[in-house]
Amino acid sequence: MMDRLVCADGGNPDPTSTHGKKAVEAKALELKGWPYPRHLAGRYFGIVEHGDSVGAETLRRSLADWLTDMSLISAGGMAGSRRLCRLHGALCHREHHALDEDKAFQEEVSNVGAPPSAMPSG
């Protein structure tokens, strides 16, 4: 998904110009320059973070920074959800089942995906 978002941000305006992504042609086109239309600029984003290690927070921050750099707008405090789940060893399948049944977490994810106008105020 991340690779495709780079294209949506205003990558090569004519993919046929590189004849199958030939690196030399792509670099020449890039150096020649083209306007980046920032197709996603002004759209809101939210991130659902579900991980089994501390690194998940670093990834969330990296994603948020990257999306903001592409001129997307964080939907705010309700547009994020974090869960740390231990998914090691024999407990792995039970943890996934518990997550599938966790209605509170599903509600959090639903809130992340709601448009900002639908978010509760306060």
Summary?
The protein is of the alpha/beta class.
How does this structure look, described?
It is elongated, with a radius of gyration of 19 Å. It is built from 5 helices and 4 strands; from the N terminus they run ααββαββαα. The longest helix has 15 residues. The strands form 2 sheets. Strands 1-3 form a two-stranded parallel sheet. Strands 2-4 form a two-stranded parallel sheet. Helix content is 43%, strand content 11%. It is an alpha/beta fold.
Topology:
Blueprint: H1 2-8, H2 23-32, E1 44-45, E2 47-51, H3 55-69, E3 73-74, E4 80-84, H4 92-101, H5 103-113
Parallel strand pairs: 1-3, 2-4
**Mean pLDDT value:** 74
Major beta sheet, specifics?
2 strands, parallel
| Helix segment tally | 5
Q: Please identify the structural class as seen in this structure.
A: alpha/beta
Low-confidence stretches: 87-91
Please state roughly what percent of the residues sit in beta strands, choosing from under 5%, 5-15%, 15-25%, 25-35%, 35-45% or over 45%: 5-15%
Global geometry: elongated
> How far apart, in Å, are the first and last alpha carbons?
33 Å
Helix content: 40-55%
Taken in chain order, the helices and strands follow as HHEEHEEHH
User: Strands of the biggest beta sheet: in what spatial order?
Assistant: 1-3
Radius of gyration: 19 Å
Count the beta strands.
4
